[in-house]
Amino acid sequence: MKKLLSKLCVSWVLLVVAILKVTSLQAAEIKVAVAANFYKPVLALVDHYQKETGHHVQVSAGSTGKLYAQIKNGAPFEVFLAADQQRPSLLVEEGLAEPSSQFTYALGTLVLWSNNPELVDGKGEILKEELTHIAICNPKTAPYGAAAVSAMKNLSVYNKLEPKFVEGQSVGQTYQQISSGAVDLGFVALSQVLVDKQLNGGSLWLVPNELYSPIKQDAVLLKQGSNNAAAKQFLAYLQTEQSKQLIKDFGYDVK
């Protein structure tokens, strides 16, 4: 009887080892390039995805324009989560992304934010005052920067404020400039200043949607990921109701 139990134990251990080996072989890595505004949400999405699938997702964040340039220059990304529709569409046109894979995963919201809880008023009237500096991300490479420029022009304050710009290369860098106190206020994404759906300190003005073009953030499967089933699965995961709810919780709208 003891010998039988011993054999069964050995067999069970070998079975578990075999299962672990198979799981290890099936686990894949996905290289994702993500716009800086969506960095926190994608980390939360990746955490859920990895737990459910066993795959590993490597995330690189930056401005949409710079990531686009890196992809054109051969960076080994497989999935691109941009902050606009333009760059994913260009990559499709240039043969660097799969045409049928492109979709809008989030609609962004622009805010004027300060780390000072008493600085920014609820109507954005502070933009008409004499400011020393105002932070903005590069409008040529970062869609949130382009949206900020559009909003200021529509408010007829752009010419007055342009000499005061402190420009970040991405909306992530702009957020750091404001949160550190290096700049008193500036334009960032709503998702960057929320924690558990609440403002994480400071003061903000939700910039009205009519002051800038909708920030439609598109995802696309890059040609380098066309043979990676896990990359395709990750894009499908972003379109599940579970993922859409999480994206909403971070301050975005979804289609």
Automatic annotation (TrEMBL):
A Pfam family the protein falls into: SBP_bac_11
Top-level taxon in the UniProt lineage: Bacteria
Any one GO BP annotation for this protein: molybdate ion transport
GO function terms (MF aspect): metal ion binding; molybdate ion binding; tungstate binding
Alphabetized UniProt keyword annotations: Metal-binding, Molybdenum, Signal
The keyword Hydrolase appears for this protein: no
Extent of the signal sequence: 1-27
Residues involved in molybdate binding: T64, V171
InterPro entries cross-referenced by the UniProt entry: AvModA-like_subst-bd, ModA, ModA/WtpA
Family assignment from sequence similarity: Belongs to the bacterial solute-binding protein ModA family.
Subunit annotation: The complex is composed of two ATP-binding proteins (ModC), two transmembrane proteins (ModB) and a solute-binding protein (ModA).
Name by which UniProt lists this protein: Periplasmic molybdenum-binding protein ModA
Native species: Agarivorans albus MKT 106
Organism classification: Bacteria, Pseudomonadati, Pseudomonadota, Gammaproteobacteria, Alteromonadales
